[in-house]
Sequence to fold (588 residues):
Amino acid sequence: MDIFSVLSMFGGLALFLFGMSLMGKGLEKLSGGKMEQILEKMTNTPIKGVFLGALVTAVIQSSSATTVMVVGFVNSGIMTLRQAIGIILGANIGTTATGWLLALGGIENTGAGTLLRLLQPASFTPVLALIGILLYMFLKGGKKREIGSILLGFAVLMYGMMQMSGAVSGLREEPAFIQMLVAFDHPLPALLAGALIAAVIQSSSAAVGIVQALSSTGVIRIGMAVPLIMGISIGASVPCLLSSIGANKNAKRAAFVYLYYNIVNTLLLLPVWYVARAVFDFAFADTAANTVSIAIINTVSKLTAILFIPFTRQFEKLMCITIPDKKGADEEETFALLDERFLKMPSFAIEQARNTADKMASISEKSMLCALDMLYDYDRAKAEQIDEWEDLTDQLEDKLGTFLVKLGRTSMTSAESKKVSKMLHSIGDLERIADHAENLVEVSREMHEKHLTFSPQAHKELDHAIAALREIVTMSIRALVNDDVELANRVEPLEQVIDLLKDELRTRHITRLQNFECTIENGFVFNDMLTNIERVSDHCSNLAVCVIQLQHSTFDTHEYLRDVKAHDGQFDQLYHEYKDLYYKPIKA
Fold:
């Protein structure tokens, strides 16, 4: 084996890993986050968890990725540790799917006919590659383009596998290589070698693929492959353990489930294998392994996960012993849905970000409505609650904004990019609404402490402005959360009426001051109220425009408002409706 064969082998490995990654990401995008949502919601029994873990892992082609995902779920409180155990057991089963795909390359063409030849990767992979590149290059987006990336990924994976197999085939004549493999007749060196390969590559599927490629030399025997595969299962736990760094204790426990299961499984199966081999003298153990036999070994060793289903409670206790509770430790995780582990799954990360943004919207709405309720009747407890909500929205804006910026750097579909842009454009306005709620609390506090009251006429005028503000806040938040374009279209006309109200009320206030019907001190408070009301309505307008403009893939707010006021008949109709409702009564 010369330097060119070595280069060819590493080139094949690179293609193999890239193809696996491309195919997995394409499948994940095609699912649109549905696989993650299924994992999140449908794991109420261990059996369901095992089934779903196997299914999702078979689709995304990586048990490590599934387990990392689950660690994130547990860290954010979406999933309990017991639910996670079932999924992790299932992930070990699902990871065998890749081995069977690669085993297609081991089908022998013995003249059995055209059908058998068609099942060989050398026959169908070029066709898949051609279809994949056509879909990927000539379609701008959507599901068909993702299908193209899946087909391309699979084709690249298979080409990489074939290139690796071809590059290492000459090793069967290398005495040094044969001598090295002699050590694999002993379980410990084989276990360590398998664990090292999987730990370095950080994928059990890829590590099994390398062993399958090496089997083309004819030197690896079935007896050697068994401990190698078991070692790979243990080494594949490394990325899961790394993902738990910085997570809470339950997330760390979930990561250790993967490691402990494979260690326990190995300690049970390997002695059984060697004792049975000694007693029954398995002749096949000394025969050369091929891709199919390695896939069988991998599958049999992982199917034992089914036997562990009744012991999920014991596994949970073992994890709690390994990582015990600490007295006085604060277990509450703030903003847990914004776990950066989810960035590896953009479609699901977007849903988590949206849930957080919806929570922020709800807090902003509650803050404003609560502030308006206590405007004339100051309540210290409510004021403190609004202060807490305002502080929370500040933190949410910071954390969510950072998370969304990082999410924007990942690979997303155009529809997903629009959702991220919408959230980035809206969180600032949501935070400002909560700020103005706090400002109104200060106005209420000042009126309470200084025993200030408005004249009946001023009170009546403000009530109409406050009623209009209640409606616009509720309407804009509902439109934002539900992506309701029809409702969003009603916001800007009402905002214009609120501007009209502000100007009219200010003019009337100046008149009262000139007629000595209002004190200077009352005037300042009255003006502060109007300023906050007008600015909140502006932020509500921004939220509504954000929902509308999302449909047009642009966020030029000023251009939209200019056009809609000039050319939209519906705008004029709604404007007059709201004017009749809120403005005309104070003119009467």
About this structure: The chain has two domains: 3-322, 345-587. The two ends are 98 Å apart (CA to CA). Residues 513 and 519 are 7 Å apart (CA to CA).
